Every structure is written in C-alpha cells, then in structure tokens.
Inverse folding.
C-alpha cells in the first residue's frame, strides 16, 4: 500500500461519549480542510452575511445530573438566517446545522445556502460546546484545564444542548409545530443521525453527510481509511502510487545519518528529529488530499495535482525529489514547511488531548456503540429508525465507515462515485444529482409531517367541539333535573 497502515484514523472519541480526548487524527473529521485557506472554498458575499444574526443561549452545563455544578450555565452561540423563511404560520421547515469540532463560523459561510430558498426554510447554525465562543467555565484555559472540567465535553451533552436550544427557539418563534430537519457533516453528520434517533420528537428528519458512524467498537476493519486513500491515488496514477510506496523505505534509510539531508530536501521549518516525523507529515497531506479531493480553486483536485507533480518530472529524477515536488504542488511554494500542521497547540481539539494533561485513565471505548448503536445496524435501525439520509462520496476515505446501502425505505443511503468529504452540503454544481435526491426525500418527509399535523389538529378540533356540545347538554340537563336525576346524568 502507498500509505502507512498504522494511520491514526480513530474518531475524535473525546466527543463521542468520553471524558477525555484521544490522539488527534490526521486529518480531522471536518466539513472543510482546516489546513487549507477557507477563501479557496467559500462563495460568501456581504449580502449573505447581512442575512445572518448571531445570538447566545444560556445553556445548561450538565443535562444528566443534579449535582450543584450541574446547574452552571454557559453562553452557547448560534446563528440564524431568516431571509427565505416562510414563517411560523406556514408549513416551512427549520433546518438546524449541528456544529462540530470547530467554531461555527468556519462552516456557516456556504453550508445549506442552496437549500433555504427551495424549502423557504429558516436556517439555524448551533456551535458545539467547548468550541469557538461556546466554552463553559468562562475561558478556554479554565474549560480545558483538567479532567473535571473536560468531563462535560462529550456527544451526549452536545446533543442535549441542541435539543434544549431548538425547543426554546421554536417556542420563542411561536413555531412549535414547524418541522425540523437536523443537518451535519462528518462528525456533525454522526451527531445529526444520532439526534434523530435520540430526539425524534424534536427533529422529524436528519441529513448526515459523510458520517462514519460505523467507525466505532471494531465494527469495521481499522485500516479501511488508508486503503481508500491508497485506492484514490492508484486510480489517478499507478506510477504516482508506486513512487509514494517506494518513498517510505528511502526516507527510513536516512534515519541514522541523513536527517539533515531530509530537513533540507523538504525544507522543514524545524530540523527533523526522526524519519517518522516526515512520514507522518506526508501521510497527513496525502490523506487530506484524498479526503478533500474537491474541484474547487485554487487547489482543485489535490490528488491529481500531487500525482501530476510527481509524474511529470524528467525521467531519472530521484524518488525524494518527486515526493517533494508533490508537496509543493499541494501546499504551494513556501519558504519552509511546518511538519506540525496537525498538532497545533492553540487548536481547541488539541487542547483537549489527554497527552497534554497526562491523565491516567482511558476513554470508554465501547460506550459509543452502547449509547448510539452500530452493531447489526441494518437489523436494528430498520425496526425503529426513520427519516435519515446517509450521504457519502466514495472518494472520501471516511466513506468506508459510513452507511452505503439503504437500511429501510426511510433510512436512505446516497452515494456519488467521485464525491468527496461532505461535498453534498457545500456548493458543488456538478453534484446536482445527489443534491436533487436529498431535496426530493426531504420534501417527502415535510409533506408527510404537515399532512399528519393537519389530520391531528382536525381530529382534536372535532373532539373538542364534541366535548363542548356534551358539556352544554349536561349543564342544561342539570339545571332542570331533580337530585336523583342529576346523579343518573353524572353516572351516565
């Protein structure tokens, strides 16, 4: 295989029902690549930003206990775009984007913009606790200071945050009967699917984009991610694939006396301490390129760019020169290259890492499956789950941990052969087929919901009217009846 099979592709388990954070994955579960410029993949305009209003909800710290500190609160940030909303007195839905492991602004610029006018929907974007401005205990430093404060940093609490905020928001908007669809990408897609299962009375449907919900508890082979990365590169160019494969042993051959040579060859900002540092850096870049293999400027189709640079050098060019050319083609020409891209000490996910604090206990590795399910998922979910779209692009390495076939008539899997990570919920003109399918399915959910709502209201109205009639008859009868007759009427 072209890539090291020991790739750390475990999910951010600190978010998934654990109290501490495991090692940072490379790359992270994110809707967009965190190490590339956001300006390269956003079409935000000033007018779009003007449509948004930012609010803060006084959120409960601990939804599941009654300790004194459980009632502590923090300010949770959320953003609303009401430009296209039909209003509370219509059948227009509310689309709620569940923020994941990043400040909410990093995902809000383009996510769901195309869906709002189609549905006349209200768009709501909620920031995940412990990210951005939604940090408990007053500051990042305090919130991430020890395992006690980090104990409230998990997915169950985050889902309860969303539930409480959505209920409160609908009440304030007098929109208690408006249908809600939750949407998320990557880890946020996992949250969206779990939210629909845990809170079906709040969300009548969920769109889970690139959500690797099977990547837990050894449900699938651990090496699925690097296998798909390797496949992506091999399909683009077999010679590129072979060159990358050859490079690992060559890099290792410089471990003893050649680290200064590697430092100079790859222009690393700091001297290399081991060959594995360089391999980890390269591995992360190859994975990121495969995961976010978007056709978006200025770094469109990164896998092709890397392989073109590797393959197009003159015949006889040595392997490491080709590999270095691939790095430049992907990242761009720089004075030096930071090999610690994925270990940013100021990143909020990194701040939560257990290695930082040397905690002595391990997250509960099996609890996620116990809490949310995963084993025998088709057999289980088709019995009690409904109204979830699992969408995946098959070039995305995380698709190997996702749902790729229908589980039931309303638990639908949509896939695109050339799609990448979370591409369906971003502006992607060529992905119209998959997006059109999502729109059609969600329109069906909303139509069914509003039909049932009308029937329910009509039925209740009939019952209420009938009750009023009988009450009137009884009162009138009582006013003219003798005591014994009154008793007979009441018993009747």
């Amino acid at each position: 295989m072209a890539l090291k099979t020991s790739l750390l592709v475990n999910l951010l388990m600190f978010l998934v029902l654990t109290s501490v954070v495991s090692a940072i994955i490379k790359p992270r579960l994110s809707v967009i690549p965190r190490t590339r410029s956001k300006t390269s993949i956003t079409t935000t305009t000033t007018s779009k930003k003007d449509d948004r209003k930012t609010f803060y909800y006084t959120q409960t710290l601990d939804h599941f206990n009654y300790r004194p500190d459980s009632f502590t609160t923090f300010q949770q940030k959320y953003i609303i775009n009401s430009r296209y909303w039909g209003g509370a007195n219509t059948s227009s839905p509310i689309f709620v984007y569940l923020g994941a492991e990043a400040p909410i602004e990093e995902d809000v610029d383009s996510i769901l913009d195309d869906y709002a006018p189609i549905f006349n929907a209200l768009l709501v974007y909620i920031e995940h606790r412990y990210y951005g401005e939604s940090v408990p205990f007053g500051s990042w430093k305090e919130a991430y200071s020890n395992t006690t404060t980090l104990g409230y940093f998990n997915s169950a609490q985050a889902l309860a945050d969303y539930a409480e905020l959505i209920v409160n928001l609908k009440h304030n908007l007098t929109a208690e009967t408006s249908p809600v669809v939750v949407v998320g990408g990557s880890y946020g897609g996992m949250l969206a699917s779990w939210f629909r299962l845990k809170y079906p009375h709040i969300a009548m449907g969920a769109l889970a984009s690139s959500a690797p919900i099977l990547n837990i508890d050894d449900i699938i082979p651990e090496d699925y991610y690097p296998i798909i990365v390797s496949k992506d590169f091999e399909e683009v160019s077999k010679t590129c694939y072979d060159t990358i494969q050859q490079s690992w042993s060559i890099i290792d051959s410089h471990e003893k006396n050649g680290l200064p040579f590697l430092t100079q060859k790859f222009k690393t900002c700091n001297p290399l301490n081991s060959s594995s540092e360089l391999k980890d850096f390269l591995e992360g870049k190859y994975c990121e390129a495969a995961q976010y293999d978007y056709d978006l400027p200025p770094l469109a189709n990164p896998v092709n760019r890397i392989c073109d640079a590797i393959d197009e050098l003159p015949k006889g060019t040595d392997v490491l020169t080709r590999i270095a050319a691939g790095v430049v083609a992907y990242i761009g020409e720089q004075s030096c290259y930071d090999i610690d891209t994925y270990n940013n000490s100021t990143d909020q996910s990194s701040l939560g890492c257990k290695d930082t604090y040397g905690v002595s206990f391990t997250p509960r590795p099996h609890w996620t499956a116990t809490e949310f399910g995963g084993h025998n998922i088709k057999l289980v979910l088709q019995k009690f789950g409904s109204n979830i779209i699992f969408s995946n692009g098959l070039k995305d390495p995380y698709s190997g941990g996702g749902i790729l076939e229908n589980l039931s008539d309303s638990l639908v899997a949509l896939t695109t052969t050339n799609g990448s990570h979370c591409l369906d919920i971003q502006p992607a003109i060529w992905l119209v087929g998959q997006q059109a399918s999502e729109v059609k399915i969600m329109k069906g959910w909303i139509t069914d919901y509003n039909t049932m709502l009308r029937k329910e209201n009509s039925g209740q109205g009939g019952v209420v009217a009938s009750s009023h009639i009988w009450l009137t008859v009884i009162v009138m009868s009582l006013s003219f009846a003798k005591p014994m007759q009154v008793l007979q009427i009441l018993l009747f």
Notes: Residues 449-491 form one domain. Residues 393 and 419 are 4 Å apart (CA to CA).
